[in-house]
Amino acid sequence: MSNANTKQHREPLFHVVKRTELSTGKAWLVRGAAILLGFLISGILSVLLTGKGFFEIYEIMFKGVFGMLFAGRLSQFWVFLQKTAILLCLSLAVTPAFKMKFWNCGAEGQALISGLVSMFLMISLGGKVADWFLVILVVVCGILAGALWGIIPALFKAHFNTNETLFTLMMNYVATQIVAYYVYLVGQGSGIIQPVSYGNLPKIPPSDYFLNILVVVAVMIVMSIYLRHSKQGYEIAVVGESQNTARYIGINVKKVILRTMAISGAVCGLAGVLMVAGTDHSVNTNSMGGQGFTAIMISWLGQFNPYIMAGMSALVIFLQVGAAKVADSCFMNSSFADIVAGIVILLLVGSEFFIRYSVKFRTSKKEEKQ
Question: In this structure, are residues 169 and 106 in contact, taking their beta carbons and an 8 Å threshold?
């Protein structure tokens, strides 16, 4: 009987305790260790699957991303910066909503709808109006389309308290099917719209992508100032902490929700414009390449800090593009790139557990057998 009671009241081997505070430096040491461990595991897995050496794998990745950078050939490097810029733009877009604890999972759809509107205008008005006017129309209407697609779930959340996560996710599927239908009609069943020469964003030396990159850098700076130093940024933070507190101090919560989602959708719309009118000059259901969902993770890992998010975006694109180059050189399935990138990202996400919690092991001596 006594043995049964002893076993029943025995302390667990370990228990999880929420940390009171971990310094910023130590938190980034944990994240850095997770990234290094991810690179180590990904490298070992790549060696086992490809038969190449560990350092050879990362040499292929580096050359796949940066190309002949040190020889002055920058074409691949500009592609890397362009992909990073688009991912960062989408990450910046969802950040205000996330900080408000409005889980906007619809960045993909908001960007796609913007791209669709841009393409529609480029095809419909190309050659019929002055090209400079068409460019302005494409940019303005594309941004407004993204904003509208973001306001729709915000309206239902503000007035009917619907689940914004499910709502925004479903709107991604609606946007994807609308784009698929438009591509089917314009492409006459081919599923492809050939690149359009009208209404495209101007190209600025030294690269075709330089304007896109400059725009996203400007958005990053403005978003940082907006979230940290503006009255609206303060209202977003208060609503995110507690809607009741926000109402108590006189903040119109419904207005903040609608305004913030309009901004979030508008920046997603900007990403769609940059992708369609500035990069692909066409549109399809895979124009955003699933980056709208990756942006959610970038925003969260970056702690809603636009500058940290820029580094996270560059890391993810390096992994995706570099691992894809390894897969091509070894005649492997393209899923290999997703696996390699996924390992590093998974460990980075998992490191947040050790930043927020600590594991305490049982310190009492083992009970002696009776």
Answer: yes
DSSP symbol at 193: -
Q: What separation in angstroms does the CA of 112 have from each of 8, 157, 185?
A: 57, 22, 17
- The residues spanned by each domain of the chain are 13-52+330-370, 74-318
Question: In this structure, are residues 97 and 267 in contact, taking their beta carbons and an 8 Å threshold?
Answer: no
Query: Is the bond preceding 202 in cis, omega lying within 30 degrees of 0?
Result: no
Low-confidence ranges of the chain (pLDDT < 50): 1, 367-370
Place of tokens 């896109």: 212
Residue 324 has what pLDDT? 86
Per the rule left: phi > 0, alpha: psi between -120 and 50, beta: everything else, 159 is alpha
* Alpha-carbon torsion (125, 130, 133, 135), positive or negative: positive
Assess contact for 307 and 222: CB atoms under 8 A.
Answer: no
Which residue is listed with tokens 């086992």? 48
pLDDT at 318: 92
pLDDT at residue 190, as a whole number: 78
Q: What is the dihedral of CA 323, 326, 332, 334, to 10 degrees?
A: 30
Query: How far is residue 12's CA from residue 81's CA, in Å, rounded to a whole number?
Result: 50
CATH number of 74-318: 1.10.3470
What is the predicted pLDDT for the residue at 69? Answer: 66
